[in-house]
Design a protein that fits this description.
Layout (H helix, E strand, L loop, with lengths): L5 E5 L6 E6 L6 H7 L5 E7 H12 L7 E7 L8 H13 L7 E6 L1 H13 L5 E6 L2 H7 L4 E6 L2 E8 L4 E5 L8 H17 L4 H13 L3 H21 L14 H10 L7 H18 L5 H12 L13 H10 L3 E2 L2 E9 L2 E7 L2 H9 L3
Parallel strand pairs: 2-9, 3-4, 3-5, 5-6, 6-9
Antiparallel strand pairs: 1-2, 7-8, 10-11, 11-12
Helix pairs in contact: 3-4, 5-6, 5-8, 6-7, 6-10, 7-8, 9-10, 9-12, 10-11, 10-13, 12-13
The structure holds nicotinamide-adenine-dinucleotide (NAD) and zinc ion.
The site of nicotinamide-adenine-dinucleotide has 28 residues, from helix 2, helix 4, helix 5 and helix 6.
Length: 364
């Protein structure tokens, strides 16, 4: 097996697991499953844009006595549904998949969340292995064990914490990722750069052009750094009772923007980039961060060049109202995760609505 990959160990109370990151690491899939002692019943869940590119090569590893089957769900967020989960249970039951089978999730966060939810609930839980194929899934959604589906009344409302047995983040998958999706992942990457006191932020600053060009060797080191940061936080706070909230840097603003633009014209990662600009503005006005550091973070975000959708016209009061309905509200006050420097995050109540309106206005 190749040595040119990174390993991050996620150490959790019940059972830890490894995240392996590298170019072509997915070629080691069947060998890694054997090493883990997983049995031969494999159910791979994916979606056509991904499986058309990568399924055949993976399937070739599962000859002989492996029992390998595959299911493509329709592409997109709408597949994170109760109906789709139910269809997958039926498929597994009809094929007599047993308690010790393994579900492989090959795709972005949608496939990972849905397949993970099915793995957590089918026969009260079967083995789950994540093969994330978007940058967002590699640095964020495949790590930390949150799995789930949407409800017509809101996103991600039905779910569980369910840890995979293994995550293989194959950097070569990212080469086929549409640029818009890649930018979304970069939003989360910059978030990690700001919230961690590692040297990630400075490496991003120095190499942003090569990262935009998807330089594979550099990307592997960046994904590894992000996974390590998320793993460290998740280990300390598996069920999101404390510091895991820091991962929401920029996200309260982002969720308001996503809701306002009804998700259509603004993707999550793009909203996170804009949300971090709002958070920076508020931090600056409250004197929580020095101007030089704020300008550096702002400069890195501007390098990604995300624009507000042209339509509809932004209404800052509506955005503040949406924020007030967010779940990070206690006793009617908005609590915000704000940057106080590189690697310095504060969670603070912000009562001044004018400040919030101004932060959105600054995006124009
Ligand atoms: N569980 C968590 O902790 C967590 C964290 C963040 C986000 N999420 C969830 O993740 C989802 C978003 O995930 P996403 O941004 O990966 O979106 P996605 O899964 O919809 O993938 C984006 C698009 O890229 C395509 N694609 C994926 N990999 C590709 C590749 N290698 N080459 C070409 N095309 C490819 C997909 O088919 C899709 O059209 C949301 O549902 C969100 O709620 C979960
Ligand atoms: Zn996010």
């Amino acid at each position: 097996m190749s040595q040119d990959h990174f390993e991050v160990n996620v150490r959790l109370k019940e059972r830890g697991y490894q995240v392996l990151i590298g170019e072509r690491i997915s070629e080691e899939l069947s060998g890694r499953l054997t090493e883990l002692g997983l049995n031969k019943q494999i159910a791979l869940i994916s979606t056509a844009p991904v499986s058309n590119l990568y399924l055949e090569k993976l399937r070739r590893q599962f000859g002989g006595d492996w029992n390998f089957m595959h299911y493509d769900v329709p592409d997109g967020e709408k597949s994170k549904s109760h109906e789709q989960a139910y269809a997958l249970y039926t498929w597994l039951l009809e094929n007599k998949y047993e308690r010790n089978c393994t579900i492989l999730a090959l795709g972005g966060g949608v496939v990972g969340d849905l397949a993970g939810f099915v793995a957590a609930t089918y026969l009260r839980g079967v083995n789950l292995v994540q093969l994330p194929t978007t940058l967002l899934a590699q640095v964020d959604s495949s790590i930390g064990g949150k799995v789930g589906i949407n409800h017509p009344l809101g996103k991600n409302l039905i779910g569980s914490f369910y840890q995979p047995r293994l995550v293989l983040a194959d950097i070569s998958f990212l080469q086929s990722l549409p640029d818009e999706e890649y930018v979304c992942g970069l939003g989360e990457v910059i978030k990690y750069g700001v919230l961690s006191d590692s040297d990630l932020f400075f490496r991003l600053e120095d190499n942003i052009a090569a990262i935009r060009e998807k330089d594979p060797a550099l990307l592997a080191t960046v994904v590894q750094a992000c996974v390590q940061i998320k793993a460290d936080i998740v280990e300390k706070d598996e069920r999101e009772q404390g510091i895991r909230a820091y991962l929401n840097l920029g996200h309260t603003f982002a969720h308001a923007l996503e809701t306002f633009y009804k998700y259509h014209d603004l993707k999550h990662g793009q909203a996170v980039l804009l949300g971090m600009k709002c958070a920076l503005f508020v931090s600056g006005e409250l004197g929580l961060i020095d101007r030089t550091t704020a300008a550096r973070i702002d400069g890195l975000i501007n390098g990604i060049n995300v624009q507000l959708p042209a339509e509809p016209e932004m209404d800052v009061q509506s955005l503040v109202e949406i924020m007030k309905r967010d779940k990070k509200i206690r006793d009617g006050t908005i609590y915000l995760v704000l940057p106080a420097g590189i690697g310095k995050i504060v969670l603070t109540p912000v009562a001044d609505e004018n400040l919030l309106r101004e932060s959105f206005s600054g995006l124009r």
